[in-house]
Write a structure and sequence with these properties.
Blueprint lengths: L1 E10 L6 H19 L3 E9 L3 H9 L4 H18 L6 E4 L3 H16 L3 E11 L4 E3 L17 E10 L5 H10 L4 E2 L1 H12 L5 E2 L1 E3 L6 E2 L2 E6 L1 H6 L1 H8 L7 H4 L4 E5 L3 H14 L7 E5 L2 E3 L2 E2 L10 H8 L1 H11 L6 E2 L2 H31 L10 H7 L2 H10 L3 H22 L1 H4 L6 H22 L4 H10 L42
Parallel strand pairs: 1-2, 1-12, 2-3, 7-13, 12-13, 14-16
Antiparallel strand pairs: 4-5, 4-6, 6-8, 9-11, 10-11, 14-15
Helix pairs in contact: 2-3, 4-8, 5-6, 6-10, 11-12, 12-13, 13-18, 14-16, 15-16, 16-18, 18-19
The structure holds one RNA strand of 77 nucleotides.
Length: 508
RNA sequence: GGCUCCGUAGCUCAGCCGGUUAGAGCGCACCACUCAUAAUGGUGAGGUCGGUGGUUCGAGUCCACCCGGAGCUACCA
């Protein structure tokens, strides 16, 4: 089955931060998991580059929008690589292929009567160079500059969003998991039910954008341009091949809650208007908070993902984000929480389990995994595990999958304590039992690591190799007992070494 | 104002279609073990399940109201 997953495309004006890493890692975990299931996967990420803010920033820096976009896009590409994202393509909305396709699609909307010329009327703030909504106004003044605003008119092209009211309501009625979590589904549906207005999809007086094909005085509103990336990329992501047939419609768009409406309302309407299929579902994740507040540079409460990865590794970050905060919810992250999870779970429970298991196999059986009887206790623990985890991933429930996996890790540690192999080793009469215990541990670790592969790919791979499980990486192989004994284990440096961190120099 | 969601052990949260003594993880206390990255395992501490009133043989789990908190209520991306 084709599985097409996307991240939002990131606006090049922003500094790559933890939130970007979060979306990208989430989509990557889903992509890796589906590949493990043998599905035909396409994973897309990229950058959104048009629009006034980029043009303004470029002007401030004395450069061109294109140069600025080139420079900043690389940083997002670097971030994706740094978090070990396995994206199949990195789209930029400035790609000529994308631009051409956006023009073609928008022209189609115009030709089919879904777009018309109209007048946008609103309160315009000169200082912001921007229109304000009624609800934003404070006593009829700009909330930022507190100056009286004038009513301004602008000729725009409008998309008949209002004509998709019923179609959208039907989409939601017939597809209860079009948007998840459920609260976001309700939020989007509620918005639709309130009545949709047409939206303007062009801007004049801006030049950094995709020109409207039939009226080049205008450029296409960046959001229209940006949303289309999910579709346009397929046509040129692979040279000499059009993947559209194969992967459209997208399986899941991973997005943050701040861009819900664009994806849950405007986007499906645009697709319907263009005669294209709508995506199967959207998964909306929450915000990563610090001390209950959204991270922001001005508050100084940011976690730099690069810094974390430099210190603890990429796997640790990938693990932490989905372990600490239920995927789909808002949640607090902190360096303290990070260190606790890293030490207690990755280093102690998983890493140390690997160390003790390998040490015992080496010490008691010269590094050869014994062909023991699968211990009944562990057979029970792993019964149905791959299926349970796959079911979580089918709902994009990464945190749920991780919890399922971690319960097994804990069971393995419990098993070691109960069986006390070091006692069995003292009694030659217990050799068979020791074989069984050691085999069970190796096999349990192998299964757990296979299941963990999408989340902590580097560490899980290293451990699998050390366990002598050289080849098979599919989910099918994650069945307890699928591999018999006989493998030779190898050396394994600590998977997650304890990090000695310099005590914070107390701020004066 | 309207709509949605939430309020369960010190902390973070599970509790599906209502049903035996309300659970997990962290933190804390004590105990056990020594294979291991001084790691692991066990036990305990007893929370009016926000409040009140209902429905029911029986409600954390359904209904009403109240208190407290969060989000959305359209064109910054």
């Amino acid at each position: 089955m084709p599985f097409y997953v996307t991240t939002p495309i990131y606006y090049v004006n922003a500094e790559p931060h933890l939130g970007h890493a979060y979306s990208t890692i989430a989509a990557d975990i889903l992509a890796r998991h589906m590949r493990q299931r043998g599905e035909d996967v396409f994973f897309l990420t990229g950058t959104d580059e048009h629009g006034e803010p980029v043009a303004q920033a470029a002007e401030r820096l004395g450069t061109t929008p294109r140069e600025l976009a080139d420079r900043n896009s690389v940083r997002f590409r670097d971030l994706a690589a740094r978090v070990n994202a396995t994206n199949d393509f990195f789209i930029r909305t400035s790609d000529p292929e994308h631009v051409a396709e956006v023009r073609r699609i928008v022209q189609g909307l115009y030709d089919s009567g879904h777009v018309y010329a109209g007048v946008y009327e609103g309160w315009y703030c000169d200082r912001c160079a921007d229109f304000k909504t009624e609800s934003e106004l404070v006593d009829g003044k700009c909330p930022i500059h507190l100056i009286t605003l004038e009513k301004r008119h602008e000729e725009n092209y409008f998309f008949r969003l209002s004509s998709f009211q019923e179609a959208l309501e039907r989409l939601y009625a017939e597809n209860r998991d079009f948007v998840s979590p459920g609260s976001r589904f309700n939020e989007a549906l509620n918005f639709i039910r309130q009545g949709l207005e047409d939206i303007s999809i062009s801007r004049s007086a801006i030049s950094w954008g995709v020109p409207v094909p039939w009226d080049e005085r205008h450029v296409i509103y960046v959001w229209i341009d940006a949303l289309l990336n999910y579709y346009t990329a397929l046509a040129y992501a692979r040279e000499g091949e059009d993947l559209t047939e194969r992967f459209w419609p997208a399986t899941v768009h991973v997005i943050g809650k701040d861009i819900l409406k664009f994806h849950a309302v405007i986007w499906p309407a645009m697709l319907m208007a263009s005669g294209l299929e709508v995506p199967e579902r959207l998964f909306i994740h929450g915000y990563l908070l610090m001390d209950e507040h959204k991270m922001s540079k001005s508050l100084g409460n940011v976690i730099d993902p690069f810094q974390v990865m430099d210190l603890y590794g990429t796997d640790a970050l990938r693990f932490y984000l989905f372990r600490e905060v239920g995927f789909g919810q808002d949640g607090n992250v902190s360096t303290e929480g990070f260190e606790t999870r890293y030490t207690t779970e990755l280093a102690n429970e998983y890493g140390n389990l690997a160390s003790r298991t390998l040490a015992m196999v080496s010490r008691y059986r010269d590094g050869a995994v014994p062909a023991g009887e699968p211990p009944a206790a562990l057979v029970a623990v792993f019964e149905g595990a791959p299926e349970a985890i796959a079911a979580c991933f089918d709902r994009s429930d990464i945190s749920g999958a991780l919890e399922q996996i971690w319960e097994r890790v804990r069971e393995l540690n419990r098993f070691v304590a109960e069986q006390a192999p070091w006692q069995l080793a003292k009694d030659p009469a217990q050799a068979e039992r020791l074989d069984s215990v050691l085999y069970g541990l190796v096999e349990g670790l192998r299964v757990v690591s296979l299941l963990l592969l999408p989340i902590v790919p580097e560490a899980a791979e290293r451990l699998l190799i050390a366990l002598g499980a050289a080849h098979e990486r599919s989910l099918v192989a994650a069945r307890f007992g699928a591999v018999a004994g006989g493998a030779q284990t190898g050396e394994l440096p600590q998977l997650f070494p304890k990090i000695e961190r310099e005590p914070e120099p107390s701020a004066a």
